[in-house]
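Postdoc handover notes: sequence design on the structure in folder B. Input tokens:
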């Protein structure tokens, strides 16, 4: 089913061509939902954008467009406001027909893309041998959400975790374990990730302070890169232990499965990066190192900034590995869009490696590499969220604390309502609410911004929170139970009758899901979907409060039941794309 926006844009294109000639074919009418109901449902700003080009006043242009604009099947006669805004109000019978059409559709009228692409989403990519902390929350859930939405839109999505599993840190850790805990290098059963993280910190201290230990660590790296059997076995044990511990957190978060292709995967491809860049004439030797001098980046002296590709000692760095990944993803995995949900502090790094990738010819015009930066998770004081000792809060602890807060809230509510529930019910509900609250609080922010982490705010039953969305869904299920309604029996194309203002408002919003998902597909901002779902919940609650459903007379009763069902299904679908399950009761 063609979306309302797509239908209107098609009508505008015809009108523009008929009014001003074929040169205006494809012109964007700049259609947006009207901010004020008195202006209708949509507003077109195309007249203002064409004023300079056509050398006419915007209002005169708008009048000529309206004369040729045929939207009679969809809208009331368009009106012109201000300097040249074209206002459009959807017809009630059009809304009713659209709702009736999407009712039996499991995708709720959202069409798959007509231009499917092979997409790689690079997340969550932690560093092996270190506990995941609060800083790993955002890449995990933002990456998972983006992957879910793009997959639903019809793209082929490959989820890849570019874990840090190679290089000097492993030399340090292996050298330290050989000295302090040699048994740990024989099996994954002798220690846990918390101990491994402690050992890593101790190894870093030794590396910074002891020259003999630094040499032992370097030797371990050399042996690792050379494929020494005993060193590789130790490395594999560390990686396996880390992956096993991370999976517990991924399962708790409900993160979908992905492929691990860490730094080690690309290690054998690093010489090919050097060869390619040399052949392109991009490598320049500078103080013994092989570098690419970047355009638009300068050092403190104002000279072009070099990106080191190979160190003077022959070693490589993170940039080299990332370039190898770019090259592999284009040449071998045939990716057409690669998305990196990584913190904003890495913006320059990605700009630099993308520039090198383009200059080397790996990133062609039809291939999009995009960094989707995000801000920090802050504590109540507006500073980085840390423990009292100043360390980053382990992610597992943060999630378990969220579940504990949700449990306390549920117990208080059950006591207030004098309800008795089983332990199994309470366990499931508090886990869903606690984890969903954390995820939704993050995704509902513009990802480019910092936000303050607050259990009280994210678990509130009112406001733009996961519990508020879940409660709206539960409310519909309550209607089903109270009225003994099987919503599946309404899955056919039931007649829709929209009479009350709140019914019309809810109907219009239900039909904007496809537009919202298209926006997220383009700009990779999940908060747009969160805002849509929040407003949907608000509009449904207003409808529910003002319109009788079960007590209404036919055909209004069935029509309103369909509206309730479409709302619940839209909430369930939208929340699933955020990685959030629904509850039948709370």
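Designed sequence:
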């Amino acid at each position: 089913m063609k979306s309302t926006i797509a239908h209107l844009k098609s009508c505008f294109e015809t009108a523009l061509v008929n009014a001003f000639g074929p040169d205006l074919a494809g012109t964007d009418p700049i259609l947006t939902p009207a901010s004020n109901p008195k202006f209708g449902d949509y507003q077109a700003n195309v007249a203002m954008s064409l004023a300079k080009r056509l050398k006419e006043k915007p209002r005169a242009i708008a009048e000529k467009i309206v004369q040729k604009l045929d939207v009679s099947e969809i809208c009331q006669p368009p009106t012109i406001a201000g300097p040249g805004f074209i206002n459009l109000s959807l017809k009630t019978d059009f809304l009713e027909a659209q709702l009736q059409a999407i009712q039996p559709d499991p995708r709720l009228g959202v069409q798959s893309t007509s231009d499917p692409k092979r997409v790689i989403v690079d997340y969550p990519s932690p560093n092996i041998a270190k506990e995941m902390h609060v800083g790993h929350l955002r890449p995990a859930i933002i990456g998972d959400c983006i992957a879910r939405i793009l997959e639903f839109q019809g793209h082929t999505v490959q989820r890849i975790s570019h874990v840090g599993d190679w290089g000097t840190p492993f030399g340090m850790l292996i050298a330290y374990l050989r000295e302090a805990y040699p048994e740990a290098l024989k099996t994954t059963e002798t220690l846990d990730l918390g101990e491994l993280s402690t050992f890593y910190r101790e190894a870093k201290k030794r590396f910074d302070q002891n020259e003999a230990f630094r040499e032992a660590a370097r030797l371990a790296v050399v042996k690792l890169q050379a494929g020494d059997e005993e060193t590789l076995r130790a490395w594999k044990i560390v990686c396996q232990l880390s992956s096993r511990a991370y999976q517990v957190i991924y399962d708790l978060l409900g993160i979908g499965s992905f492929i691990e292709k860490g730094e080690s995967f690309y290690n054998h491809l690093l010489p090919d990066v050097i060869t390619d860049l040399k052949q392109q004439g991009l490598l320049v030797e500078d103080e013994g190192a092989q570098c690419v001098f970047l355009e638009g980046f300068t050092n403190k002296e104002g000279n072009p900034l070099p990106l080191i590709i190979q160190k003077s000692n022959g070693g490589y760095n993170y940039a080299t590995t990332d370039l190898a990944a770019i090259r592999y993803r284009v040449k071998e995995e045939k990716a057409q869009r690669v998305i990196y949900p990584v913190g904003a502090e890495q913006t320059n790094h990605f700009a630099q490696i993308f520039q090198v990738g383009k200059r080397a010819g790996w990133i062609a015009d039809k291939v999009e590499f995009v960094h989707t930066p995000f801000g920090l998770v802050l504590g109540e004081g507006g500073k980085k969220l840390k423990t009292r000792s100043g360390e980053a809060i382990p992610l597992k602890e943060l999630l378990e604390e969220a579940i504990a807060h949700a449990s306390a809230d549920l117990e208080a509510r059950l006591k207030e309502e004098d309800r008795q529930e089983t332990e199994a019910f309470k366990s499931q509900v508090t886990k869903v609410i606690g984890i969903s609250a954390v995820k939704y609080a993050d995704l509902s922010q513009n990802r480019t911004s910092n936000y303050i982490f607050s259990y009280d705010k994210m678990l509130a039953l009112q406001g733009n929170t996961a519990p508020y969305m879940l409660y709206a869904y539960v409310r519909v299920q309550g209607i089903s139970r109270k009225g003994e309604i099987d919503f599946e029996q309404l899955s056919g194309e039931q007649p829709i009758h929209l009479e009350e203002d709140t019914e019309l408002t809810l109907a219009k919003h239900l039909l904007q899901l496809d537009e919202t998902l298209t926006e997220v597909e383009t700009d990779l901002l999940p908060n747009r979907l969160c805002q849509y779902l929040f407003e949907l919940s608000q509009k449904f609650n207003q409808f529910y409060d003002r319109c009788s459903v079960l007590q209404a007379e036919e055909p209004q009763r069935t029509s309103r039941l369909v509206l309730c069902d479409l709302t619940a299904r839209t909430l369930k679908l939208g929340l699933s794309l955020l990685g959030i399950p629904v509850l039948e009761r709370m």
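Context for whoever picks this up: The chain has a mean pLDDT of 91. Don't rerun without checking with the PI first.
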